[in-house]
């Protein structure tokens, strides 16, 4: 059996077949039982260009019937576990396959989840890139588009949704006419089946889809609840039904007004900008449990992770992130769904475009007008990191099979692709870019394309630009450009000690490439700005637009202008490049970056510092000093989130052990001071409270208790002492004394936290911190679990239990996660998170050897999603012998030359992370 469909196999089928319709019947009426499988029946109508043997994809426990053109085939002879092989005749063909697929717990195929909050069962499908075959027989590749007609038999209490509206429903066993049990517009079909049918299953019938790929078909079923609305296209006047759905236990937290508001704003924006009406009928959005992705763009039924339903208070960065995800998936209705790539090589044709368009709509159509700020710091950091790996690849990648495709949903395809599209818009102009997009939709609607198709459309509307040359330089190459600016100033002025006010007498911009040195040169369209003081703020003094494509160029427009405090390349963030600040700019940034008034410029300067510390050009200690200074001063939620992510990475991987206690004590002290002065109920207050708890969990590695470490631990204790929903006013001396923390009594009075309301998220963060310290045990975890019986509470409890710093706990956690099929995707990750949590003693060292011994089995015995979580999550970067782990990784790769390419890629990337950590630690000096 092979589940790894290759590009060559897919192309052969494309040349042979043209698919018309799938009629798919699913019977999940046993979903609430302990049944492992369900019934799937598919009828495929298609044409063949010649008589030949071919195969259809279906991963199932069994296939009971195969019929081609009226001829029954023996399932035992034609089904190998993943494919049914059969003969076709030239012309029209009809194939019927009946199978029993398995309910999934990995988030691939048809996932089944039982909500611990109320015991209710939920189903949802997830098919990208080729997991529709886990639910029904189909030619599971993007270029064999067809119409799909679904019917689903489910328990009567289930809400059932699919890509198109429900046209009718029929109780199983009823003599009712199937054509008229409910209105064809689907309005009543969304309601419960009713008490008369409570003991019966109901079959739901759905309208045929438009022509689409198999990977964006979708089914959800379960007692989902939600809200509905209607959007009217301002251009066409057509109405579109909207729905927002989630689990019953989360529906009270479903802020449907905000979600629907973002949805309507996005539909207004895209319908106008693309000049192509939303084509898919209704627009349901459903938030589902244990989801592997942020979301999936199934037309008419977009699925999201229900972690985007906020049960506890979150910062505005999370609302911005959710809005961005909503708009990203909406952009796919055109880029990806209406026009689809032929094969996964051109995945960028949907993901890069959706990432860029989502960001654009966020900034121009919603309240998040500075949405590009978070993109500049966080999203592009993902791209830069991915582009530095040995496994980096061009945006238009070579994808030989679907396992490679699965791993190509990465920082290159998403964030780099979106960044490069920003550069393309700067290169050709916004008007031309959208004109080319509109032509692309009209020319290729409901069909499949390659890179050349989009470039041809763009070249038609921008004939004065070298589109092909631009594409060769940006889309067909790997690595990231690095830009630096060398300035010379008026000698007399600088000698007087006023360098920031000096006039620029010379300016040279230089580009090199992270992968290939200065040999790879790209065309850059960017802005260069000088920033200087205006009172206490740092603001732009001057900016110039500049185009260049050589190794270096003179920026004559800067000559005679004031140098300022910071010289900032890629001002306004139109380019994709890692910017190197000059020495003077770096010094100003380290001491005063928080004074840069413009959030986007501030994010870009932080991005330059992030890249410098990652490359060893800026000492880790100096970066953490700059970060500590920013605490309490940074007001942008997205920047706060991005900076803390990098700071925690520094602590976890880049700070040498001899410097760890000094580093974490300094950060904890700064975070506690900032928390004490944060505005009541603000984003900063919530962010800082969680940061203190996160840092406190890491103090498990500390031997000595500094005052800030003791205060952080006391804060975690206080959080658990305050009931849910009440205000955490301060750390009480009684709590400090009871837990033996060496904190002066007057310290409590210095840390008022007015407006900080306790909730489940804060409490679980505090509990995990205390568990890592050995200050809480299984009894404490059980008590907290009793207070929070939700699915997220269950996962946090799994993490906390596995984080207990006891050898027997680590052994049981290891045995549980490595057993194939024992855990669902999210429970597996939760336990792994606890297994690798900080501990005072190296109690997981014994599992290094076992990890490498089990690697091949991780991949062979699990689905690719579960295998990926095991390979990445358990990689022993936590070992005391980091160099030994690098050597073991190299040895394993050498000893397994025939290992799957996707597995080797994951290992190479983790090995690169660890080698970077070793390098950065070796460059550090001791600090006392």
Number of strands: 28
Strand order of the largest sheet: 5-4-7-2-1-10-13-12
Q: Which shape, going by the Cα principal axes?
A: globular
- Tally of contiguous helical segments: 30
Query: What percent of residues are in strands?
Result: 15-25%
Give me the secondary-structure category: alpha+beta
Report helical residue fraction.
40-55%
Radius of gyration equals 29 Å
Give a quick account of the main beta sheet: strands, pairing sense, barrel closure: 8 strands, mixed
- Would you identify the regions where 5 or more consecutive residues have pLDDT less than 50? 175-198, 732-750
- Classify the oligomer: single chain
How many angstroms does the end-to-end distance come to? 60 Å
Which whole number gives the mean pLDDT? 92
Q: What are the main properties of this structure?
A:
aminopeptidase activity; alpha+beta; 20% strand; 928 residues; eight-stranded mixed β-sheet; aminopeptidase; globular; ERAP1-like_C_dom; 28 strands; Pept_M1_aminopeptidase; single chain; five-stranded mixed β-sheet
Note the topology.
Layout (H helix, E strand, L loop, with lengths): L6 H10 E11 L11 E10 L3 E6 L4 E7 L2 E3 L1 H4 L4 E6 L2 E10 L8 E6 L6 E6 L20 E9 L3 E4 L3 E6 L29 E6 L12 E4 L2 E8 L6 E8 L9 H19 L8 E6 L6 E2 L4 E5 L10 H17 L6 E3 L6 H18 L5 H18 L13 H6 L4 H17 L1 H15 L2 E3 L1 H11 L5 H8 L6 E9 L1 H5 L8 E10 L10 E11 L2 E12 L3 E3 L11 E4 L8 E3 L2 H10 L6 H16 L5 H11 L6 H18 L2 H21 L5 H16 L8 H15 L11 H6 L6 H5 L10 H14 L4 H10 L3 H13 L3 H12 L6 H11 L11 H14 L3 H10 L8 H14 L5 H22 L6
Parallel strand pairs: 1-10, 16-17, 17-19, 20-21, 22-28
Antiparallel strand pairs: 1-2, 2-7, 3-6, 4-5, 4-7, 8-9, 9-14, 10-13, 11-14, 12-13, 15-16, 18-19, 22-23, 23-26, 24-25, 24-27
Helix pairs in contact: 3-4, 3-5, 4-5, 5-8, 6-8, 6-14, 6-16, 8-9, 9-10, 13-15, 15-16, 15-17, 16-18, 17-18, 17-19, 18-19, 18-22, 19-22, 22-24, 23-24, 24-26, 25-26, 26-28, 27-28, 29-30
Protein name: Aminopeptidase N
Keywords: Aminopeptidase, Hydrolase, Protease
Pfam family, one: ERAP1_C
